[in-house]
Please model this.
Amino acid sequence: MLRQAASSISRDLIKTPVIARGFATAEKTPLIHPPVRQFGLAARYCAALYSCATKKQILPTVDAEVKQVAEMAKTNAKFSSFLANPSINKKKKEEFIMAFLKELKFSETTQNLFGVMASNGRLKQTGQVAKLFQEIMMAHRGEVPARVTSAEPLTAEQLASVTTQCKSYLEEGKTLVLEQKVNPAIIGGLIIDVGDKHIDLSIDTKIRKMEAILREPL
Model:
């Protein structure tokens, strides 16, 4: 009964082509592809989820719900164990996760995603699915992730300077989402990651390069 009730996300999963046993034939509307290319099984679930949520115009809702499930998996040991436990019957897992999310008043789209994952024995990939879906949503919103790593916390002036520099790498219309990380091991300087760009200006790296040069024969 739960399998028959699964809606368009199940059909999109068939198109991706994730095997979704027991679901209806694929709907006529084409799959809406995510704004970024991803690979692997978890990426297929994300592509199906993005397509279904886009068609239903509930992307922000689904985004928040997937984040909530991922957070529960991180912070609740029993829930995490349930997702990862392969000894629990797949059908029982499917029934439980869909009933649980329904009780939380989650959208049918999110319920069906995790129902399909449960029936396919893939709930252990919840964290990876959430991570990849976050990448899709950032791209959808035109956000570019960036991270600056320093040996000590940056001052407001230093952070403003780094932010300005990072924004210079962005295409017009894109928004910078900057994360700060402190790592004393780099000794000094900065490591900046913006999108697919990696700029290592750390003292640790400079010392390593110098050591490599000194080891070369004269």
